[in-house]
Amino acid sequence: MSEYILTKAEVQRVAKLARITLSQEELAKFQKQLSAVIGYASQMNEVNTDSVLPTAQVTGLKNTYREDSPQKDQSLNHRQALANAPDQQDGYFKVKPVL
Amino acid sequence: MVLRLIRVYRVQEVTMQHCDLTIIEALDGLNKREFTSKELVQSCLQRIDQVDGEINAFITVTKELALDQAEEADKLRAQVKNLPLLGIPVGIKDLYCTKGIETTAGSNILKGFIPPYDATVVKRLKDAGAVIIGKLNQDAFAHGSSGENSDFGITRNPWNQDYVPGGSSSGSGAAVSSGMCLAATGTDTGSSIRLPAAFCNLAGLKNTYGRVSRYGVIAMASSLDCPGVLTKTVEDQALILKIIAGHDPLDSTTLANEVPNYLKSLRVGRRTVSGRPGKDIKIGIPQEFFVEGIHDKVRELTQQAIERYEKMGFAIEEISLPHTKYGISTYYILCLSEVSSNLARYDGIRYLASMRKGDTIEDLYLDTRGQCFGDEAKRRIMLGTYALSAGYYEAYYDKAQRLRTLVKNDFNEAFKKVDIILAPSSPTPPFKIGEKVDNPLQMYLSDIYLVTVNLAGVPSLNIPCGFVNKLPIGMQLIGPQLSEELLLQVGYTYQQETNWHRKKPEIASLAN
Fold this sequence. Notes:
The complex is a heterodimer.
Chain A: H1 8-17, H2 24-41, H3 78-82, E1 88-89, E2 92-93
Antiparallel strand pairs in A: 1-2
Chain B: H1 2-6, H2 23-31, H3 37-55, E1 58-61, H4 63-78, E2 89-93, H5 120-127, E3 131-136, H6 170-177, E4 183-188, H7 194-200, E5 203-206, E6 226-231, H8 234-244, H9 262-267, E7 272-273, E8 276-277, E9 282-286, H10 296-311, E10 315-319, H11 327-342, H12 361-372, H13 375-388, H14 394-417, E11 420-424, H15 440-445, H16 451-456, E12 460-468, E13 471-478, H17 484-497
Helix pairs in contact in B: 3-4, 6-7, 8-17, 11-13, 11-14
């Protein structure tokens, strides 16, 4: 039995989806805090929105186009693009094995 | 600790320095050759030396660069090559990419990041002749309403250092109000320009969504983020908005609408009566903002401001924004969902923070993000991930997108009746450092009067309207999309009649 809306397992699942490792203390703290916020947000259910369309773009702007051509003054060269990389090799980002 | 004890002995009158001027005043002095840009910048640098040990508004001070830029500005001025901000020292929130200058977003995960390009706003300020004096502290990734959530230490309110300066543009608010720079950039996703402006006695304008380019501003919630500035006066806002606003091919959500000469229209506005807007302008007061939870003194000062407008000839009418109470829920669900997506890029591969002890790339992600993100970023990413995850999407994210429509409709309906809306910026005066830090929900609720503006994409200008126990109180003027010109006119009218915005904080270390 948990007094919180989210179980520890649910918090753990969300952390895994978000690729974040949590300590046991963090898990307990976040279970409490996340539950409080989600609990508060459930007040949205008081409003019937069945006939309301969702808004994603608030100014109503749509479909902005430009020529699909290289913009030299906006491009970075290899050196600039990799300047902040923690590890690199032969002009590429270097990562751990994927498999 | 020693510094805090000294406050008892502070003096009332501190000699005005160049750094205490507004931009308009400083430009006047520069153009009349009363002082040079170098002297102005030195005055700000001296103020930083004197007070920033206590306030902690800056993450990086670009002293050499600023002095070089100031000398360059003085040369240009001598050649009568004038630019609208020539030689004016401005601070840049550390969320804005600055070419060649470390940009951290207030987070350890970006420590050491040197952007290869300037944000459009930074480029436009530099092109207008502004001097970049440094990078300002903030809540990490703009996650916060108090400035306490920075990996580079909390920022203190110059008006009383036991209190928060408001966030997330905390360093921006503290730096401008204490004279460490003449203006500073901020970003307003849910409150982050207006709340620090309110808590630090400044003008802060959250523009119409898309009025100012987001290019090069590290993303928090892309459908809500609005870059802008914090200044000492409405006039300074008008001057800078003309420079930073307008279409940018690098941000496809920017609006193509023409940018008015805001400063000029302050003095000879379209709808003015003998130089002042009034009479035909109707101000709406939203009843939902004056219910339980509002501090008595905030209510009283807002009421006095309303009466002042009434005396100036503005019509006042009560209006309703019925979905205000759902603002925080709707805002946070949308904001956190977008945060969880935007912060996915901090994976230990592209930026310097990288935990590489594990064997696989999965370990790299988990360890880097687990160890380098602060608590608030983790909370927000997890809440957003939850709201977007299978089985919860309809109940949270989709529901909030529909509620955004209703909030927007509330404003549309209100603006059929009135030209602008006047409301408090915060239900309470500035709060104490530490007061809300362990209770994220209470912290989120500090933004209750501010977030619906972002959901509707409309502009809102915070201006000072009084003090409670020597702490500043702000109010906001809200208008329809692209009504910045009118908001600035109406705000300017108030500042001509009042002196709240002229008051300066008494800072202990300046009293010696």
